[in-house]
Design a protein that fits this description.
Number of strands: 14
Strand order of the largest sheet: 5-4-6-7-3-8-9-10-11
Mean pLDDT: 89
CATH architecture of the largest domain: 3-Layer(aba) Sandwich
Strand content: 15-25%
CATH topology of the largest domain: Rossmann fold
Order of helices and strands: HEEEHEHEHHEHEHEEEHEHHEHHEE
Low-confidence stretches: none
Helix content: 25-40%
CATH superfamily of the largest domain: P-loop containing nucleotide triphosphate hydrolases
Number of helices: 12
Largest sheet: 9 strands, mixed
Radius of gyration: 26 Å
Structural class: alpha/beta
Length: about 325
């Protein structure tokens, strides 16, 4: 056991440790499979993974999608397997996994299961527990398991993704990530963020990737897939918030922009001028809200000590 721990490596850099069960959960069409394919090819290219050790069991794809991924897998030397094309059911797959564990053939193997609900009823606690026990036998024999899972349509009260299934799924896996799509599904450039929810070992807690959405070949999206600045989701959320403020308070934004274009003004003078001008569908409260929300973005505020820290606003220079 000590030797195994000392030899532990990452199957997916900083995210999935060899010899563990790692689950990635997201809503459909959020880039899970793209991420898996990218990680496999990167791992093979960098010498982290051996192609002959990788088994990708693709049970969640349509015929065209499976064909395209099989072509890619074939070029890189790893196995892409469709249960339906192989004419085997989930029970036979589980039996093969048990046989792999019992016969000593699991050591060093990396098995991708896409997606877990195709292999087990996520709401049947006993069945799920037995399936995860089978996967644990494989990891105890030196295999690594990477699982794709689906999230429910609706977020929880805190705005977080909710996995499909029982709590047992969380209890019996080693590492779990939720994948959030931070862009609109219609956007050409997609940004996805991985947030860790459970770990047993040293893995990153957050990571971002981006890709170009294409309606053509799947391989075009795969080639565009790559690491993004880990702060990108924060900056994107901030930009969306700014646009929402400008849209919701369009009249206030236009009024303040026109007013400050004449020069720097003290907050009290801005409010007094607003009270005098009485622009329709605005209030002193909404004016102050927009001033604060867009401070440092559309204009800059400073405090003058000689005037008891009175706040002055001026338009932010455009470069």
């Amino acid at each position: 056991m000590r030797e195994n721990l000392q030899n532990a490596t990452y199957v997916i850099p900083d995210m999935a440790i060899s010899g563990q069960i790692t689950v990635f959960i997201a809503k459909p069409n959020s880039g899970k499979t793209l991420f898996f394919m990218y990680s496999i090819i990167e791992g093979i290219t960098r010498g982290i993974l051996k192609p002959e050790d990788i088994f990708y069991i693709n049970a969640d794809d349509h015929y065209q999608g499976f064909y395209e991924k099989t072509e890619i897998a074939s070029r890189h030397g790893f196995s892409m397997i469709s249960p339906s094309e192989a004419n085997i059911n989930k029970d036979e797959i589980i039996s093969l996994l048990v046989e792999m564990a019992d016969s000593g053939q699991a050591d060093g193997k990396v098995i991708f299961l896409d997606t877990i609900k195709k292999f087990v009823d996520m709401m049947a606690k006993r069945q799920l527990a037995e399936f995860l026990d089978t996967l644990r036998k494989l990891t105890n024999r030196g295999a690594t398991i990477i699982i794709a899972g689906h999230a429910n349509k609706h977020l929880d009260a805190d705005g977080k993704l909710v996995y499909e299934g029982t709590a047992d799924q969380l209890n019996d896996v080693d590492c779990l990530y939720y994948i959030y799509r931070r862009t609109d599904k219609t956007d050409r450039e997609q940004l996805i963020e991985f947030i860790n929810d459970k770990d047993r070992g040293s893995v990153v807690q957050q990571r971002a990737y981006s890709y170009i959405k294409s309606h053509g070949m799947y391989e075009d999206m795969l080639k565009s897939f790559g690491r993004a600045d880990d702060d990108a989701p924060y900056h994107l959320a901030q930009q969306k918030h700014i646009e929402e403020i400008k849209c919701a308070y369009e009249l206030e934004f236009q009024y303040l922009t026109n007013l400050l274009s004449r020069g720097e003004m003290k907050l009290n003078d801005i409010l007094a001028r607003h009270k005098q001008d009485k622009p329709e569908n605005t209030s002193g409260k909404s004016i102050q809200k927009v001033l604060n929300e867009l401070d440092g973005i559309e204009w800059i505020s400073t405090k003058k000590k000689e005037e008891n820290n009175a706040r002055y606003f001026r338009l932010k220079p455009k470069f």
